[in-house]
Amino acid sequence: MKPVGLKAPRAPDVPQDIELLDPTPHKGRDLPVRVRAVSINPVDTKGRQRAGALEGEEFCVPG
């Protein structure tokens, strides 16, 4: 999986492409989906001002 990750709020080097393991669906109603396109909205840019990695983690993956 190749998500976009944020290190710290308002950091100049974000967003960054990062590599993560493919998520596994939980039992029940979860389904894996293939994403073919994404977009960035004004709300996403405002969320970037507050989003950052949690303590002990390198990146925060929004969404």
Ordered list of secondary-structure elements with their pairings:
Elements: E1 4-5, E2 16-17, H1 42-48
Antiparallel strand pairs: 1-2
- Cα-atom radius of gyration: 13 Å
Helix content: 10-25%
Structural category? little secondary structure
List the helices and strands in order: EEH
Query: What would the average pLDDT be, to the nearest integer?
Result: 77
Strand order of the largest sheet: 1-2
Number of separate helices: 1
Shape: globular
Taking the sheet with the most strands, its summary is:
2 strands, antiparallel
Which regions are unreliable across 5 or more consecutive residues at pLDDT < 50? none
Strand content: 5-15%
Number of strands: 2
Can you walk through the features of this model?
With 63 residues, the chain is low in regular secondary structure. It is 11% helix and 6% strand. The protein contains one helix and two strands, in the order ββα. The protein has one helix at 42-48; strands spanning 4-5, 16-17. The chain has a two-stranded antiparallel ribbon. The protein is globular, with a radius of gyration of 13 Å. The two termini are 14 Å apart. 2% of the residues are buried.
